[in-house]
Amino acid sequence: MTQQHADDQAPAHILVVDDDPTNRYVLATTLARGGHRVTTAEDGTRALELLRTAAELPEIAIVDVRLPDMTGFEVCERIKENPVTAAMPVINISASAISADDRTRGLYRGADAYLVEPIAPGELLATVTATLRYARARRRAELLADRLHLLNRATLAVYSATDAHELIRATTQGAASVLRCDSAVFLHTPQGDALVAHTTTKRQGTASTADTQVHPVPAPEGRDDAWTDTTDTTDTTGITDGLPDRVSLPEPLGDPAGRRVVVGRAKSDRPPVVILVPAHAVVLDDDHQLLHQLARASALALEALRSYSEEHALALTLQRSFLPENLPRDARADLAVRYLPASERAEIGGDFYEAISTANGLVVAVGDVAGHSLDAAMVMGQVRHALRAYALEGHPPHAILSRLDHLLTSVEPGTAVTLCVVLIEYASETLHVANAGHLPPLLRAPDGTTVYVEEHGPMLGLGLPHPPALQVTAESGSLLLLVTDGLIERRHIDLQRSLDSLARVLAEAPLPPEDVCDELLDRLPPDGSDDIAIMAVRLNAPEETGADRPGPPGDRLRG
Question: What is the CA radius of gyration of the chain?
Fold first, then answer.
């Protein structure tokens, strides 16, 4: 049995709301004998007041339907309407409201279960256990998703650091935010100095720059190579020896027995990045893995700072990390891509591409986030991962654009993104093209003729509606080309002339997609002022069936 499943059986703090003293006693006694801790309330008003002022919220509420001041249905609705208690499971109980309509009403108004009194002790405890199992699994999933989001933000902050002081602050704040606890970090700067940083989290579990203090650490007497004697990232012996004597850390970080240590190294011969958190904050294996990922990211960033071109080396690392590691192998099409970062600037770009095999067909896309900065890269990563998720859910191209537009206007207002998404059906020669202000895709027929798919909608981030995808017929042997503007846009040259040149080059290029990409870069050499993304797709014969394809079941596009 895994640790997660074992946690589902752990006792809980339970709120029992019943106006009958006898019923309250029976329920509380049964739950207490089952190992649970019980708080009671005699009416709805008292129950809501307890929830509003409680230092520790109960995990579950058992609410009688017939209360003197309000119905149990109303209490349940109040609990579910409050963002603080909305996730709390509620079990309605009643000895009089026992009809099917009553039970249905309770469930519709927010209850997670409905029991009819008299309730057998075993049934009560089993229902509580089952309800807690679902609620705890949901909380774990939500917590992990939230921590992964925070880890992503922390990793980006770490990679954007331009010096060791900024790096140690970002790592310390990232560890504190991911696990919502106090944290401390130790590292050596590229110049060989030792630094320690520690932060105290606020009540909400956040840590700001002002909360994080960075101090130089005096080396032990007669020793200048602190923390360089350990090469195994899982062995922390000796790494933190003597640190409390050299720097004052808040408890429990200053007590070896009360802390957990995670070590990250970029190379075995480099001093490590050491993260310290309270032992009580690392409960599950996921917690340790999150810290290990952050420590590893911090060590890599520190290594980048050692290079002769700090910002440029970091930019290349981040650009590559945001792009797909490989392309899908799909019988419907042969794919090739090229991605070239701008050579004359260190800023991180926002060009990206994606290709996903789904149940509805092969989805390919190329896009560009406006600007060259860390913010553009962050948006690019969010858009690409969201695009992939929406495609795998089965949404058609225009619906993907609409959802991405809503995402941008909600979480990144003011950001503009151009994006072209194409769905290649498996069982027909139909392409569904949805273009949000991006350069038009270029189609080359088997006879060598080329044509741009000109129709497009507004770019993403403006909150404007997107038209349905355009259906285009492309016979077997055709080649689809998607590019970003870095390939053809040049100062003082009209864009239409550049588009015409691209069409001529494609018409004369060898047909294999890999050769197409090489030919484009050879005939249209980049000027180094912008990033370049190229995707060449050669269409093969449609399949008779789309069965056994990845993605959601069914063969209809979702709206």
Answer: 29
